Amino acid sequence: NCPPPPSAALGGQNNLFGYIEDLQELTIIERPVRRSLKTPEEIERLTVDEELNDIERAVYLLSSGQDIQGTSVVANLPVLMQQNPAETLRRVLPKIREVLHVAGVEMQLTAAVAFLTILQEESVSIHTYSHSFLHIILQNLEHRDAGVSNAWLETLLAVIEVLPKETIRHEILNPLVSKAQLSQTLQSRLVSCKILGKLANKFETHIIKREILPLVKSLCQDVEYEVRSCMCRQLEHIAQGIGTELTKNVVLPELVELARDEGSSVRLAAFETLVNLLEMFDADDRSQTVLPLVKSFCEKSFKVDESILVSLSFHLGKLCNGLYGIFTPEQHLRFLEFYKKLCTLGLQQENGHNDNQIQLQTLEQEKKYILVRKNCAYNFPAMIVFVDPKNFHLELYSTFFCLCHDPEVPVRYTMAIGLYEVAKLLDSGVYVIHKELVTLLQDDSLEVLDALISHLPEILELMSTGGENSGSESKLLTVPDLIPALTTAEQRAATSLKWRTHEKLLQKYACLPHIISSDQIYYRFLHRMLTIIMTNNVLPVQKAAARTLCVYLRYNRKQQQRHEVIQKLIEQLGQGKSYWNRLRFLDTCEFIMELFSKSFFCKYFFLPVLELTHDPVANVRMKLCYLLPKVKSTLKVPTDKHLLQQLELCIRKLLCQEKDKDVLTIVKRTVLELDRMEISVDAFQKRFFENDLLDQEKEREEQLLLEMEQLEKEKQQNEGRSTSMSDKIFEKKRKFCKEGKKSKLVRSQSFSTQALHPKYGNIDKCSNKSSATGYTSSIPGVGKGSMLPFSDDSFRTRSTNISGNAVFSSSAPIATSSRNTANSVDQKNNGTKDSHSRKMSL
């Protein structure tokens, strides 16, 4: 064997030295761990006799245990009070009182929480609680640690709510006189301020005036600014307890004095308290006292006292509307200009302190200015009320534009949240803000988009109707950028990782049939929904897209387009190569059964669903078995007797041929459920009355779509003849819609418990088994009047090349049952007869 080269030997030696160094480092790391391990003596001290009961163990651990064991006993005190309150009060609580004198911060905080829990759980009576626990709480109020003191104070304030007046007076109010003196510690005086604010609502006015108000005045003039600020914030609670008269004579002078305090935190507290108490002051006090103070705050906020700027911007809306009645026109304009200045604060190069010199803004200033603009966005609806919505375009539109285009996301986010309130206030003038709606829909931040789509259906509905109190036609026809903005928003949500925003957006887009035309939905949105179902990887997003697609299908007005969509659903989903698509087809069928009539589902989807009993994937067959009871509920006898036979045949095949044991178990369970089901008959039955009535309403709505399409065809054919004929058809359709309203009113009066769709014609002549699509009124995001805005829009819909081929062909490649073959022919004949009768009447 050849010896290794010197370099290799050296390398091996270096590796060995490195290995030894690593071991030395590990030993250094191990040393603290070894020191932290308990010695046998320590383990012996921590060991407790297992034969002791809970009370004895608690007493033992509090007497001779370590701090961590004592803390665990204190934390378990509410449980001991529930199990054995008498023994706990007699033996454990005295030990806890002794231990708390020398306990650390952790045990003190645990005890404060435990005492509060016992009060909330009402383990003992209030009398017993005040006798046993109140003294311990009062003893620990002035703990040297501020966190511990505040924890005990929170417990005491909760106890004050339930204590009787006499106990409060003797145990809390009387000692408070000495605790609030200047000779006491700062922490003691701060605690006294908060207790006084709580006591103001517990006593009569004369007691408050005699015993509490002198202490309040004294603390308002304390030498420490923390005490003055704390007492100032409690003046709001005290004013509510003493009434309007004493507030005017006692509280208001103190607030005026505190508003001129040398401490900025005191001035801020005085300003916020003044705004919150605005309703308690009469017109004279507001004009002579409050308004000059507010003007002073506004003037100083830019020049001297920037600390109040954030609070001023937050309360400005409430302040302006609270003082609205006493403003002169000049003052009104001055406050409006002040608000506009705040809305652009930090966006200009000049800071306002020096007009000639450009000052560099620090990071802290920038954060403050962003918060100011965010507060202005929050107050924007209040400022619309302040200027009157009629003056919005003249007075506030430029400010609204700036806030919607602000460079910071929090500002735009706040505007997106409040856009619905703005739209409601503008009412008939809501179309003015449509450009900003488009801008926010195309915002770079998904947070802004998520905030906007929360109320997107309501905003679009207000814009489409021109406001709640307006009868004008849709203004959205003049917004060419709306549809591209909606599609861009969906694509941005789809490409992001925030699938919940995407799901929410798809759910809200179900309102679009109420907003835009059927053709626009078909070409811009409907196929996109189908693509999402087939390509997206997130199940909630796919289900949201499936439901929205069903809504679009229900509102589609052209039979050929409906025909194409149904065919794609069956071929690309129901007969798709991916089992995932076939599962989504079953989800879509579930939405179809929910939104459409029974006859529609049986005609187009019943047999394609049953074909999935032969699916090679067990999960698809299993999901189908869960769906079979709903499928059976769509059948009616004797009309659907042959479909019922098909269903029974498929179930027999499953029972006989199914090899997957999990699927077979579900099949057997489903068979038992199907046997218990009762099938509804063609005639109305009492036990199915409401469901049959709702289903009949869906069929009528589906038939209404057919008749509306026929009217559109007649209009298009007669457009070349004369405009008078077109006007007559339009009047005929309006009359048809009015009759629908009357019949709907009668139905709603007869069946007040059933939610039926408004604005539909009285089409009793129509066949119950319609071949058209249908839609129920339970679609999310669509209001009650969501159908017959379409009756007027239908004459504005552009004619397309495929409108002439609107009737389904009997040889169409859609898997349909033979259920309504004769009925559909009858419907076509009836439809032509009806159209001839209309022509004769015209």
Automatic annotation (TrEMBL):
Lineage: superkingdom: Eukaryota
Predominant location category: cytoplasm
UniProt signal peptide: none
Keywords, sorted A to Z: Coiled coil, Cytoplasm, Phosphoprotein, Repeat
HEAT repeats: 212-249, 251-289
Molecular function terms, GO-annotated: protein phosphatase regulator activity
Ranges annotated as biased composition (Basic and acidic residues): 831-842
SUPFAM superfamilies in alphabetical order: ARM repeat
Subcellular localization: Cytoplasm
Record's compositionally biased regions (Polar residues): 806-830
Chain intervals for the UniProt region annotation (Disordered): 806-842
InterPro entries per record: ARM-like, ARM-type_fold, HEAT_type_2, PPP4R4
GO cellular component: cytosol; protein serine/threonine phosphatase complex
Coiled coil: 691-728
Quaternary structure (record): Serine/threonine-protein phosphatase 4 (PP4) occurs in different assemblies of the catalytic and one or more regulatory subunits. Component of the PP4 complex PPP4C-PPP4R4.
Role this protein plays: Putative regulatory subunit of serine/threonine-protein phosphatase 4.
Full protein name: Serine/threonine-protein phosphatase 4 regulatory subunit 4
